[in-house]
Amino acid sequence: MHDLMFTKEIISALKNKLSAVPKGTKITSVNASLSPLSHVKPETLVETFGAMIKDTEFDGVILNVKVLPLEIKCRACDHRFKVDKPTTKCNKCNTSDLDILYSKEFTVDSIVM
Ligand SMILES: [Zn+2]
Q1: Does residue 12 form part of some domain?
Q2: What is the pLDDT along the chain (113 residues), one digit of tens a residue?
Q3: In whole angstroms, what is the distance from residue 65 CA to residue 109 CA?
Q4: CB-proximal residues (5 Å) to ion ligand 1
Q5: Total count of domains within the chain
Q6: How far is the CA of 70 from the centre of ligand 1 (A)?
Q7: Quick check: helix, strand or coil at residue 81?
Q8: How many Å lie between the centroid of ligand 1 and the Cα of residue 83?
Q9: Within a domain: 79
Q10: pLDDT value, residue 38
């Protein structure tokens, strides 16, 4: 269900953008970032987005999704590291007392016209 929520967020960002530019301006692509914690695959998001913009004013807009690394800080040894997938152990001291520093699930980074 998250992919649907994120897709709606993208479309509302596109609508906002479109209302702020001269009429007739075409949006070509949109760049978004996804956290590995969001449980949504970039390709799923692209697919859902493609299906939702079909036959709308945004038909043809290309969605680029980038998966951000997760930034983690160990409470035991203060070590900071980045991972592509959620982890439960510090890669330095091996304890599991971790803080996730980057937790925003989804962001629309930029809209290209
Ligand atoms: Zn540690």
Answers
A1: yes
A2: 789 999 999 999 999 999 999 988 999 999 999 988 888 999 999 999 999 999 999 999 999 999 988 899 999 999 999 998 878 999 999 999 999 887 688 999 999 99
A3: 10
A4: 74, 76-77, 79, 90, 92-93
A5: 1
A6: 16
A7: strand
A8: 14
A9: no
A10: 86
In a domain, 21, yes or no: yes
Domain limits for position 29: 2-69+103-112
User: What is the identity of the amino acid at 55?
Assistant: D
CA–CA gap between residue 14 and residue 58 (Å, rounded):
8
H helical segments located in 20-92: 42-53
d(CA 38, CA 44): 12
Ligand 1 centroid–CA 87 distance in Å is: 12
- What are the backbone angles phi and psi of residue 30, rounded to the nearest 5°? -135, 135
Q: Cα of 82 to ligand 1 centre, how many Å?
A: 13
The candidate with the shortest Cα–Cα distance to 66, out of 38, 113, 31, 39, is 31
Ligand 1 centre distance from Cα of residue 73 (Å):
8
CATH classification at residue 43: 3.30.2320.50
Position 16 scores a pLDDT of 96
